[in-house]
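Why does residue order matter? Because the sequence determines the fold. Keep that principle in mind as you read this record.
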Amino acid sequence: MAERPILIVEDDKTLLDVLKYNFAKEGYRVLMASDGVEALGVARKEHPDVIVLDVMLPQMSGFEVCRVLRKEMSTPILMLTARDEEVDRVVGLDIGADDYMTKPFSMRELMARVRALLRRSEMAETAAPAAKAGIKIGDIDIDTARHQVMLNGKLLNLTPKEFDLLLFLATNKGLVFSREQLLEKVWGFDYPGDTRTVDVHMRYLREKIEADPARPTRLLTVRGVGYKMEG
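Structure:
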């Protein structure tokens, strides 16, 4: 993992210096930006392996930066915010962020989450070349090589994590997984995570692939247990 590039976007210079010191000590090559416009420039030029992105930034908000980057690259993005409001979390996840932490945070937990994002990214990169054929469940076609999903021949606009969640459930069709299991398998968390993350992604996935999201027939809730996918 030595010298893996990580982009840290933070306008608080003191916090930026602390993050730089800690990640450099762990062997990362630390790239930095203090506003949204600068962040886009650095990300496009350097193609970091992971991005730690503050929400409240000058010129462009972290949400806007995330939205733009997600259209251009699949780099894992972890968002930071000083606010602990669920609406912020939902917005961040909806536009394609892979994880979300509120300030103040534990440096040890931040490091663990970044490592988890990198592991998940490595697994996806390793699996993609080997994927010769996609997965078909009813009128849903999942192209694992192109990272695309078609519903009745129409391309769906899924975030990277929505794709990962759908692919995992489709690969394990009919099997029931708890929220904790999905956090571990899809997000790669090796510590207790926030299970609301799973519910948010499931809700948005249902809105995109179910005829009636309120009465799903594909992504099913098993009361008291978790979720499963049926064809």
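The mean pLDDT is 86.
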